[in-house]
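User: Fold this; tokens only.

Assistant: Input:
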Amino acid sequence: MDYRSTMPWHAKPAEEICKELKTSTEGLSDAEAALRLKAHGINELRKKENRTILQMLWEQLKDPMIIILIGAAILSFVLHEALEGGVILFIVSVNAVISIIQEKKAEASLDALKKMTTGRAVALRQGEESNIPASELVPGDIVFLEDGSMVPADIRLLDSSSLKIQEASLTGEAIPSEKDADKILDESCSLGDRSNMAYSSTLVTYGRGVGIVVATGMNTEVGQIAHMIDSQNEFDTPLKKKLTSVGKTLTIVGLVVCALIFAIGFFYKQPLIPLLMTAISLAISIIPEGLPATATIVLALGVQRMAKRGAIIRKLPAVETLGGATVICSDKTGTLTLNKMTVTQIAIASDVGSGKARPTQSALKMNGSYYELIRAGALCNNAEFDPDNPGSILGDPTEGALIVLSQKFGEDHGDLEEDCPRLFEQPFDSHRKRMSTINEVGGKPVVFTKGAIDELIPVCTKILTAEGERPITDEDIESVRRISDGMASDALRVLAFAKKSIDTVPEDDDADVEFGLTFIGLVGMIDPPREEVKAAIKTCWDAGIRTVMITGDHRITAVAIAKELDIWHKGDTVYTGDELDEMSDNDYNNAVRTTSVYARVTPEQKLKIVEALKRTGEIVSMTGDGVNDAPALKAADIGIAMGLSGTDVAKEASDMIITDDNFTTIVDAVKEGRRVYRNIQKVIQFLLAGNISEILTIFIATLFNFPAPLLAVHILWINLATDTLPALALGVDPPEADVMKHKPKKSGTLFEKALVIRVITQGCFIAAATLIAFFIGLRDDLPSGQAMAFCTIAFSQLFYSYSQRSNTKSIFSKGLFENKALFVSVLVSAALMLVLVVIPPVREVFALSSLDADEWLMILGLSLIPTALIEIQKAIWHFVSKYSHRRQTGGQHAR
């Protein structure tokens, strides 16, 4: 049944809607929900179907590089070289199949990651709040909405408290819409004016609400907007564009070199058909057919590995950027710490007089004295115990610590809320840094307020003592601040509480009740640092990555935690949000260079910090979890959302989600990003050096009017059999032990100068060995020379693949079986080569002659020479680098 179109929900009272949907304010039973899920389907928009194999094949055939290869095959047939043309088409077909398989694997990886980022919703099931996948919502479910969440379905509101929802995706209205569950509207009311409705995929920016699901999946309003469904092409990454551009450039170069070779051959009056086939062979050798596809699968595999370690990459380009991060701006709570707040110190008026807080265990012995403070903390609170996980908290950990505290003092949170029902709420926001509720206490409304000490004291006019309320004095305020600073110096988070009795409950949801309050007391709670984070921060430091803590906590608390974690070092600066507000852009630029801790910072100030860091040339990763963190996450080079505590808004704005909210997971992701980046460079270096060797081999032979050392089919086979498999294996090479010991490489420097030099020199080494083998075999006849050249260049590249695992360390520094995929790929490629040369029918297809034992020994020796030269090159570089470092260090000591 299409509920969306059968009833104007905004024009009906709640009772009628519940009757229509056969539900109640107690929600659905699990059995009924399962039946409805089967009837209505999952709560998801219909996804754009993945491309078919035929569509992928067409994409392959449209590739300029493939067009040239097909053209070469056709030309072979025209020139009566049917065997060569057939082999070219066969190898092109195999290459296309491999590319399609790779792309299918990449699509499957991304589909799996999409499932991992599916949102969740809090709904009433069996009369209790349950955190369930949003995809399992059905019409009739009772759903809870809160600040920062994404509306999971079309919902008719039953209750709302200062609720505002950003509906720009549906209405185009940039200003959040204010919601009022009690209104009943005209049937003709437009979508943007339906203040008693919340629509799927819109964002809650303020307040709280409860509603009944009236439509899910494609029956929602957003389900009608087709262009919103799967509009992003996940494979069109900057890296792939860059590699495709390189491929096109090499294709053009290939055509130019073809013309040049043809001109040289024509000058030498060589036979036209062999000359043409030689030119085609050279063009083929230049084209790195598998480079973009190989890089894509390396990226996709890297994303899968990150997901297994708790880092879900939402946008593939983030993998490239991660390896170049220079600064990680991290929230404190939950990321650097355990996010398990525990109240350890308490202070009320009697303690204020002494100037010292009392440990919680000591306060438990004086239960009655602390009752007002304990009650305020439990009632001005939106957290609750999770009925499905005893001991766990649903809601903010800070608020959770307060209800655990009330439990320790013998107050059952559920009973307290039942005895003192909530009548009104003024929600917390990042500007006021306060939250207030009005509860019925003894038949009268009482305001309870909690907040940061600096924000609460100014709205207090009285203090609660054992004798009752009295005006608060400057001495009281001084003593309260002294106690607060003492708690903060112990790395405690400090919350202040106040109350006042009122005559009537405000009718306006936006009414301000935070004035003329009576100060009750303070609580100090600690969220201890994660044990593993200190080591992760040191890893970042060694890797040239600066860690910056950004927190809303007090300066003293923030610095205490930062010192414990080694984030703050001697000479570092610390700024608060108020100090940042007084800075110009130039001051910001200077400040961010030395600041390791930002305290009392608002989400809006996070954005300015990110912008300043980027202006100074840093590659910035920024963590966030709140609604207002979204601009900073968007602005950062890598926006990182928290998977556990993060709002849907933050997750939508991010490039990466860490599922455990742990800083070490970010560091692991950076390490994996560097691994992916370096492995792609290894693949590029391996493939292009092989192509350079083929180009030089044929070009030099043609330039000096020698016969072609390699035929087109030989080159195609090398590119398929001895290039593709080792290249893929290099793409999954384990990270080097010192991958986090080097300074980060800035994004966009994939083709570094050193890489280009290595590609050319290593290509020359292989070409030289190939030409020597060719001339040795040519003493017998041309097929022998071509067979020796073919085997030498193929086996050279197989041996050479092992030296590509590190550009600085010896080939012997890594175990032979450390990269099992490379070991297997080299064995398979070598076996395929032997099949070609040893089995007579196959050997004839490739126009090769048989080789005797002496020739095989020469091939083996010559094939090892390029690898040996590369290892000598590494040793020389290592010696020069070490000597240069010693001279610099000695010079510094001398100074």
